[in-house]
Amino acid sequence: MKLVTRFEAASRSTEQLQGLYREAFNAFSVAPRGSQEYRSALQSMRIIEDELATRMPGF
Fold it and tell me: Per the domain annotation, does 1 fall within a domain?
């Protein structure tokens, strides 16, 4: 999975972010633990969560 950057996350709609989060979660769940894909998916989920939290307090 390609890493989702903070800039990319900020430029997406909430619906798009939710879709990206789903993709990142799926990639994370099937990637070998410790692999680059695993780390990218995990970091992408964190970035997306942070962006969603700024839009929806209480996320």
Answer: no
Boundaries of domain holding 11: 6-55
Whether residue 38 contacts residue 31, with contact meaning beta carbons closer than 8 Å, is answered with yes
The DSSP code for 43 is H
Which pairs with CB-CB distance under 8 Å and at least 24 residues apart come from 21-24?
21/45, 21/48, 21/49, 21/52, 24/48
Q: What angle do CA 25, 28, 34 make, to 5 degrees?
A: 155
What domain count does the chain have?
Answer: 1
Over the stretch 10-55, which tens digit does the pLDDT of each residue have? 999 999 999 999 999 999 999 999 999 999 999 999 999 999 999 8
Q: Which residues, 6+ apart, have CB-to-CB distance to 27 below 8 Å?
A: 1, 37, 40, 41
